[in-house]
């Protein structure tokens, strides 16, 4: 069984996220999503999410492409996650191109094309949300 993992905030879940998750799942048989906690988002990414961790987790768990959602609490957990969850393929959107190449010693690392015209930031600004 080929096991895939990806990481992200996935706030205001949109079709750009879905495209990535669908493609990530198509690369294997089991997809784990490491979902950024509210604290990690604020402390490390200065992201204030519209939906809480639990709400974002519930949305991802409802998707047919997602088999398991785990918390992302720090940047450094990727190495241990790849070992702990017996990961074969690490996947991220290509806005992260090369940023996680260090994981190539442990698993395949793939950067997938982002869906260009959509983002959580764009949704918020279009709706005048802060
Ligand atoms: N994404 C995409 N197309 C978009 C928007 C996002 O393919 N239009 C992808 C991103 O490239 C990322 C994933 O969807 O792989 C999640 O995006 P974010 O929620 O913005 O995640 P990010 O803030 O990039 O967090 O440790 C890694 C970080 O947790 C990644």
TrEMBL record:
<dbReference type="Pfam" id="PF01467">
    <property type="entry name" value="CTP_transf_like"/>
</dbReference>
<dbReference type="GO" id="GO:0046872">
    <property type="term" value="F:metal ion binding"/>
</dbReference>
<dbReference type="InterPro" id="IPR014729">
    <property type="entry name" value="Rossmann-like_a/b/a_fold"/>
</dbReference>
<dbReference type="GO" id="GO:0005737">
    <property type="term" value="C:cytoplasm"/>
</dbReference>
<dbReference type="GO" id="GO:0047348">
    <property type="term" value="F:glycerol-3-phosphate cytidylyltransferase activity"/>
</dbReference>
<keyword id="KW-0808">Transferase</keyword>
<dbReference type="GO" id="GO:0019350">
    <property type="term" value="P:teichoic acid biosynthetic process"/>
</dbReference>
<dbReference type="InterPro" id="IPR050385">
    <property type="entry name" value="Archaeal_FAD_synthase"/>
</dbReference>
<protein>
    <recommendedName>
        <fullName>Glycerol-3-phosphate cytidylyltransferase</fullName>
        <ecNumber>2.7.7.39</ecNumber>
    </recommendedName>
</protein>
<keyword id="KW-0548">Nucleotidyltransferase</keyword>
<feature type="domain" description="Cytidyltransferase-like">
    <location>
        <begin position="5"/>
        <end position="124"/>
    </location>
</feature>
<dbReference type="InterPro" id="IPR004821">
    <property type="entry name" value="Cyt_trans-like"/>
</dbReference>
<dbReference type="InterPro" id="IPR006409">
    <property type="entry name" value="G3P_cytidylTrfase"/>
</dbReference>
